[in-house]
Predict the 3D structure of the following.
Amino acid sequence: MKEIHHWIDGKETKGTSGRFADVFNPATGEVQARLSLATKAELDAAVESAAKAQVKWGATNPQRRARVMMKFVDLINRDMDKLAEALSAEHGKTFPDAKGDVQRGLEVIEFCIGAPHLLKGEFTDSAGPGIDMYSMRQPLGVVAGITPFNFPAMIPLWKMGPALVCGNAMILKPSERDPSVPLMLAKLLQEAGLPDGVLQVVNGDKDSVDAILDNETIQAVGFVGSTPIAQYIYERASANGKRAQCFGGAKNHMIIMPDADLDQAADALIGAGYGAAGERCMAISVAVPVGEKTADALIEKLVPRIEKLKVGPWTAGNDVDYGPVVTKAAKENILRLVQTGVDQGAELVVDGRDFSLQGYEDGFFVGPHLFDRVTPDMDIYKQEIFGPVLSTVRAGSYEEAISLAMDHEYGNGTAIYTRDGDTARDFASRINIGMVGINVPIPVPLAYHTFGGWKKSGFGDLNQHGPDAFRFYTRTKTVTARWPSGIKEGGEFNFKAMD
Ligand code: NAD
């Protein structure tokens, strides 16, 4: 059986804990590798070594650090297909979707090439007589990234790019479900010129995460995953005096107004609802048609499109629409929630419960589901399902529709389909959700903007990537300097205006 270990001080390093996690092939259900799970002692040793490596890296000119990112971009492009194949093999998503996963991470590395500009401080000449004042952005030291299974390239890249180019060392603790791509990225960074020890990939589970949260050298924690864990990590990291940004789960609503282009809206819902088997934090899981006529027409357009979806392994070709979900437990949880929907009175218009794929009967495939007449008290509305299940909640008016999205505990993304600019502007202005699409179903901001949800979808005050990432991974030091006169005049005992 293949064993996957850690990446410490620039080399693959065998774990010593004797504890392992199974890494599955989600298409067949077979275990394809076992992954070392680190102990607290292993984690602490990796941090100690990273702290030593950070001193020189942090003092390296920003343009030299940016050049490592430039080279990293070339290497990711060179190995794009290899990375995407490894990603599909462990995650299960289709090959084109896996390339998209790498690509959206790569774009953040491209943005990081601008570090010398983004790290420039501020300067006030003559803030007082002979006095200058300047602010510098300095690295934090050693920081940590803890990432989820569903974007095993993109989210580690969102973490490591800004953290490293700002001059920090990073401990990356990827998801134990699909750990190979983060290790491949660490190797590519070494090839790009990153000094050994500056990026340590430590594989593990809760034990390693808790070791990160309690390690006194680690200054900041960036987390992406489910909401209960995000909240736990935010609270424990903050209580231990660390900077933390923790992004959680989602329940993204798409409102379809009566004036919307319904074919366009239905196509958007198919891609955003069922793509990647619904395992995206920006997936649309709730469709909210406004008015009975809109709802009836929408359902009529959705059903034939759903029935045509091609579900299969990534090896079956690029026309597969989506693959298996990540584990057997994930599949069972999705089917359990579907059953609660049926039991609580929602109308299951497309029933994927008996879905089975010939030759892949033990794979973690879930057929597409469509619910109609879902109500806010149902579990399938309240909880994140993270599977190919779209719920339709019929709203009587625009106000009722926007209230549904606003009252939901999650606030990651949302979308509205309409031809009316006034409605779209009102929606964008009032909605209490972090990322908004207007006739765009998955409004993931590009690398130079920032990504983050509101309410229970995000804990902390800075977003991922874009300028916020450079704020999160640096701290500001402000210097007031006076040369050379005035100092001889004696001490000052009161705050003095500098004029
Ligand atoms: P998860 O919360 O199970 O795991 C995320 C990370 O936390 C992993 O590295 C895992 O090892 C660690 N972890 C798991 N249980 C832990 C525990 N008890 N204590 C400490 N650490 C623990 O999430 P997942 O299943 O890997 O990912 C799917 C979730 O991530 C979904 O809820 C999805 O919405 C969310 N997500 C959010 C965003 C976003 O930007 N808001 C992006 C992608 C995914």
The first strand starts at residue 2 and ends at 4. The chain has two domains: 2-248+457-481, 252-438. The CA atoms of residues 19 and 440 lie 44 Å apart. The longest helix spans residues 40-58.
